[in-house]
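Justification of computing resources. Each target in the renewal requires a structure prediction run like the one illustrated here; the chain below, 259 residues long, is used simply to show the kind of job we budget for.
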Amino acid sequence: MFEAEIARYEELRQCYEERIALRMSRHDWREYNEILFSAHSCAIEGNSFTVDDTRILREQGMAMIPVGRSLLECTEMADHFRAFDYVASHLHHPFDEALLKEVNRLVVEHTLAYRCRGAVAGEYTDEDMAAGDTIFGDHEQLVARVPSLMASTERALADGQHPLIVAARWHGFYEYLHPFRDGNGRTGRLMSNFILLRAGHPLLIIDVKDRQAYINALRQIRTEGTDEHLVAFFFHTAIQRMQGELDQKRNNTRPVFFF
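Resulting structure tokens:
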């Protein structure tokens, strides 16, 4: 299953690395990805920052709050930067609960108190959860499954399963467990990208315009008992990003006649 998607993905990945990723400085490439990923990942959760807003905040810090954006949104974005930096600089870390908890702690460190009074950043929820139209299961039973999810994911990677498939399947099961009081979506997308970055693959960025398709793919894990839709969504998203940026570079390299 997914043989055709893997073949297309790997063909594009090689071209993408050669023509885009490796032709930029490591600093510029990381910053480009961090800004784009942070803007879209936070926007999926309701943050109103645009990519340009995110770039301004990343470059100038909290001293330059973009016009029309709240301090809470700025703080949320700044926390996401710290979490991304941690993930990108700790790719040697085992894929375990300690990593998961630290990423969540960083994601919600300065905003959790505003949303969940009494909760502790980086610690599992101590009460049942609901989000949107979804009531999650018994929190004690769900949290108890986190260690086995982390261990089985490491085994899947060691067994040579394709990193994008592993990242998608981990993400789906993790969001099903929903173990933290806040920041589960942002944490989950960061951890999925930890899997990809550690394997030397490009960052997976889910565009905010695809939010509903993403949510639907996650929902089908609950309603249909399968993660095939989410795996397919991950492949479509990754391929679409690489092809789009390759096309953009080709179009922006064409001769321009000024007069």
